[in-house]
Write a structure and sequence with these properties.
alpha/beta, TIM Barrel, Immunoglobulin-like, 2 domains, four-stranded antiparallel beta sheet, 10 helices, hydrolase, glucan endo-1,3-alpha-glucosidase activity, signal
Length: 437
């Protein structure tokens, strides 16, 4: 049965009226990594509509099995993407336990290459992966000989960057650096672009493409082997500026809907999470769609060719627009009732509120006031354009960010989940609030 809301139908009509015949790009594309799950059709349609509204060029479809439920979701995505003009391409999951050689998905890929929505860059279909570092170049060459002239740009997370990275891998057409967060041993630092710069230089010197990842945080709390935190306190707001300065060939948001690792920026639907109660426990109520308030203006700035965040301004016609985020359990909180314990790397978390406020041209003398409970954590003077902030002193209670001009409030947002110093679950997912709310 199809469930399609009146709102979505209206959005579909507007988008369909301007859809292209084929999704091609040779400019400055932005993608989002999309986890294939058993998802209802109305939810799939909403994802396509929301991605178009954000300005994305394509979803990178992460698939690791060809079970009927997965293929059904893929087919529905292509049907609606064909209709509405969103690009799609596959990111085959080659992490341990899944695909081990590209020959395993060659015939599956070939069935979708003729679809109007299959994304092409410079007239060539794009193919990516998650993992696959151990695949020899001969396998990639054989894969391309089988499927035709495609661009293979895998996503590696265990590779070592080097200036001659592509020398033993001439059949690759580029690379996605999956590591968009600091590692635990690095401590409380901002995400670095050192590896990105090395990969970018290596790619361009070999006439290859570099695909840069952008992500808020990585928090996983599924079992004893999947319990870690890669900090996001100084990450997304920094990564946006880094991407504009570095100017890679392509960008990929990590991710649209990976609930398991908490770095979703789009919708997470209940049906794919229902079979994973551990994931549901730390994502239920933690809506991250508020990120769109800064991501949509960022995508527009990227496509304009901006090299700084200075030109990012509200798109809502109001004086301000923004997003803030924070974890809702203090770093030193007692969550000893959770047998899994605190995640590895949580020592790098901070009791802070981070965020971005975009200020319209001509707006002056604005101040953002950050509160936790009844405590004023701090004030941030705002300028026109992009204002990233991180304010310490998080205490129990609900968090708010209000923007004031003297005695007049011009916008603000309010977190619905209270910060706590004790919890039954060691939950370090972010509460994300877009504003004005």
């Amino acid at each position: 049965m199809r469930f399609v809301s009146t709102f979505v139908v209206g959005a579909v009509a507007a988008l369909a009226s301007c859809r292209p015949a084929e999704r091609q790009n040779a400019g400055k594309p932005v993608f989002a990594h999309y986890m294939i799950g058993g998802i209802r059709e109305d939810h799939i349609l909403q994802d396509v509509v929301d991605a178009k509204a954000m300005g994305l060029d394509a979803f990178a479809l992460n698939i690791n099995v060809f079970e009927p439920w997965a293929v059904d979701t893929v087919n529905l995505l292509f049907n609606h993407a064909d209709e509405l003009g969103l690009g799609l391409f596959f990111s085959f999951d080659m992490a341990p336990g899944y695909f081990t050689d590209p020959s395993q998905y060659a015939s599956f890929l070939q069935a979708y290459l003729p679809r109007p929505s299959y994304y092409k860059y410079n007239s060539k279909p794009l193919v990516s992966t998650f993992g696959g570092e151990s695949v020899p170049d001969s396998s990639w060459a054989s894969f391309k000989a089988t499927v035709g002239d495609v661009l293979v740009v895998p996503g590696f997370y265990q590779a070592t960057p080097s200036p001659d990275f592509f020398s033993p891998l001439p059949s690759l057409d580029g690379l996605l650096n999956w590591n968009s967060w600091p590692t635990a041993p690095e401590g409380q630092v901002e995400v670095s672009t050192a590896d990105d710069q090395t990969y970018l230089s290596a790619a361009h010197s070999a006439s290859k493409l570099f695909l840069m990842g952008i992500s808020p945080l990585q928090y996983k709390h599924m079992d004893g082997n999947n319990n870690w935190y890669r900090r996001g306190e100084s990450n997304l707001e920094v990564r946006l500026a880094q991407a504009l300065a570095l100017q890679p060939d392509m960008l990929e948001l990590q991710t649209w809907n990976d609930a398991g690792e908490s770095h979703y920026v789009g919708n997470i639907w209940p049906e794919p999470v229902s079979g994973a109660p551990a994931i549901g426990a730390y994502t239920d109520g933690y809506d991250h769609t508020g990120y769109k308030n800064i991501l949509a203006p960022f995508v527009a700035a990227w496509k304009r060719g901006d090299t700084t965040t200075a030109g990012m301004v509200p798109t809502n016609g109001l004086p301000v627009q923004g997003t803030f985020w924070h974890h809702t359990l203090l770093v030193g909180a007692d969550c000893s009732a959770d047998g899994m314990g605190k995640p590895a790397g949580v020592e790098n978390a901070e009791d802070v509120v981070s965020g971005v406020v975009l200020v319209a041209a001509g707006e002056t003398e604005l101040v953002a006031v950050v509160k936790s409970g009844d405590v004023e954590m701090g004030k941030v003077s705002l300028k026109e354009g992009y204002n990233a902030f991180k304010v310490g002193g998080l205490v129990p209670g609900k968090v708010s960010v209000e923007v004031w001009r003297a005695s007049t409030m011009v916008g603000g947002g309010y977190g619905g989940i209270e910060v706590a110093n004790q919890g039954a679950l060691c939950n370090y997912n972010f509460q994300v609030v877009g504003f004005p709310s």
